[in-house]
Amino acid sequence: MKKKQIPHTYAIIFYIILFCAALTWFIPGGKYIEHTDATGIVHTQFEPAQSVPQTWQVFAALYKGFVDKADIIVFILVIGGAFWIVNDSRAFDIGTLGFLKKAQKLESNPLLRKIGVENFIITAIMLLFSIFGAVFGMSEETIAFTLILVPMAVSMGYDSITGVCMVFVAAGLGFAGAVLNPFTIGIAQGLAGLPLFSGIEYRIFCWVVINAIGFSWILRYAHKVKKDPASSPVYEEDAYWRNLHSSQPVEITYYTPRSAWVSYGLVTVSLILFSAAYPLTTLKIGNTLFGNLPLLPVFTALFAFTSFLALRKTVHIYILNLLFFTIFFLIIGVMGYAWYIMEIAALFFALGLAAGIANNKSPNEIVKLFLDGCKDILSAALIVGLAGGIIVILQDGRIIDTILHALARGMEGLGQIATVCMMYVIQTLINLIIPSGSAKAALTMPIMAPFSDLIGLSKQATVMAFQFGDGFTNLITPTSGVLIAVLGVSRIPYDKWFGWAWKFILLLIIAGAVLLIPTVLIPMNGF
Q1: CA distances from 374 to 85, 89, 224, 308, 483 (A)
Q2: What is the pLDDT, as a whole number, of residue 103?
Q3: Is the pTM for the entire model greater than 0.90?
Q4: Between the N and C ends of the chain, which has fewer C-beta atoms within 10 Å?
């Protein structure tokens, strides 16, 4: 008897596109129109619109999805090519071995031995990325870090799901907690007419609770995989990461070619020029500004000093140092200069070139390595474009606003607790279709905020319902380009990720509903 095969991720997403296209034949078209009254107040009103049933457009969805998600697709290709160049130097192998040796030495600490050194390391990494998600809305940036942490997790005896949890899921938990996230809380509160980042005390409490639940679930799963690696649902897929290291000899020759000093000189001079152009940096954390900080000059000096010491040992440590300072400059760029994926892609592209030069590769060899990296990660880029076609079909069919309007009407006549929970459900359902937090805030808050005024519900509670509804399902919806990209570069099939994640996400959704109840019943600052 022929074994029934689970559909490929590409097939699953195409089935979803077909389903969405079918909906455009049954759901009437509609759109929200903004009207400004005599006092200058903007009102949003739903109006029927000509429906556009989708037929042959399902075949154009891939093309339109590629156009819509072009920035993420190019970002994936650049990151993949750059990391392939870095990986060719064997710097990651040395870094992983060194990391594991230091982790073993930590076992001598009685407290860490009781907690579990690896539990401590995983928690510390997750906490860092959760803070990034909560403070500046880290999302697309996790794609690059996934390529670092997934191989490391597998080499530590875990699996690629654990590696994805350490970076993408952790950042997602922080994104849902959204303590100072300007892309969700900032926009939503502005549209609701609330003081920016007000009610932060309760959001910090929620962030702690969400992380406690999420980290506990992940650590429990990681312990299970560590005990029995074959129990991982992606054990077969992780053979790629295991073979990536086992296929190469462990012995590495430590050396520093003359070209590494050339790379060091070029990077240092470039950083000095940047420091001269931007001697002072103003960091924005939430709505708080930390101005006139000499971050670029300080980190340039640190890079020059530490890289000099690294090169005296081996080029591999220098390349790892390049990677670490790339991460530092990424954080400065995002928080100080509002960098997005174009600037981040350029930064990692420069990392790849500097690593290739340091590793004594010719221009042709660097190009070949870059293309090999792009080829290796191409499937991840393709699937992002295909997933983008889901949103294209719904938008072109003009049914997104109709669905939102129907859900909003369902809240009429409910009590305050039921209403805030229904808002949460609506935001969660919409997030399955529109994973962009800023876009969803612009679409839903002009409708939800006035409605909460009518029934005496705190606007802050409405914002919290948006916040939780926007955050959790980002970790599972196939319309999220970032999720699909992370799974693609990790080589985790979507169906296996869904099978692992759905109970976890359901637990988080329930926790979010429980955390919303105090916003109605208990007087709190900002509510």
Answers
A1: 11, 17, 34, 31, 19
A2: 67
A3: no
A4: N
